[in-house]
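We modelled the chain as a single entity of 278 amino acids. Its sequence is:
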Amino acid sequence: MSPPGRLRRLGLAFLLVPPLTWLVVAYLGSLVVLLVSAFWTTNSFTGAVVHTVTGDNITRVLTDEVFRTVTLRTVGVALVVTVLCAVLAVPLALYMAKIASPRMRLALVVAVTTPLWASYLVKAYAWRMLFSPEGPLSWATGYSPGYGLIATIVTLTYLWLPYMIIPVFAAFERVPGSLIDASSDLGASDVSTLRMVVAPMVFPGIAAGSIFTFSLSLGDYIAVTIVGGKTQLLGNIIYGQLVTANNQPLAAALSIIPLFAIVLYLLAMRRTGALENV
């Protein structure tokens, strides 16, 4: 290799040192500490963390009926939110990418991305006001689901919908119009074209968006606290053990559940082959 080539490689390696160091120390290091602390215990009198290795926390997480119920509820909510986001995002993204005029497309992109600039708490409390028994929804329709599981699902769907629309919109934009025209010229109906030509090319975008919506819903606890009423998800349980009960090792053991669920979801998406084309 010529000297200029070596210098370029050395320069590239030098530039990669800070981000790789941050990744290893701050991100992977914190995960290691989390996994290790799950095997610690606490002093029953002072509440202080005792660095004594024990598997009691893991055993409790796996055997406690309450934790199992909350885990199933949390995963179920995350999956429902992901499906709802996909159902809402696909037709809107299709219209934005292939049907809308340039001016309408720009207006819709602005409308989709504008909520991302608003405060998370403002959006969550807006939905709390909407679902209030004396709120606008009850006044306009005479019905409100109140605070609970339905309000949680609706709020999370609203919060994470842009994270599904954006990658799906980008996937639709990458579909060549010539393929759609060729499919129509060969006699395929619109439904057949969408199913056999467009859907396989857009699926990676849906998979990418689902990773965002699933993982964000799985770890959320603020919106659940605001609109969930008595509904408990894993995030609330972990927060309660960490802050209210002052049981850091048990909170760490509970945190392994969403981490494990996200890893399984990523592996499932990888097995579909969608992530290789994102």
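As a brief sanity check on the tokenised model: The longest helix spans residues 3-37. The chain has twelve helices and two strands.
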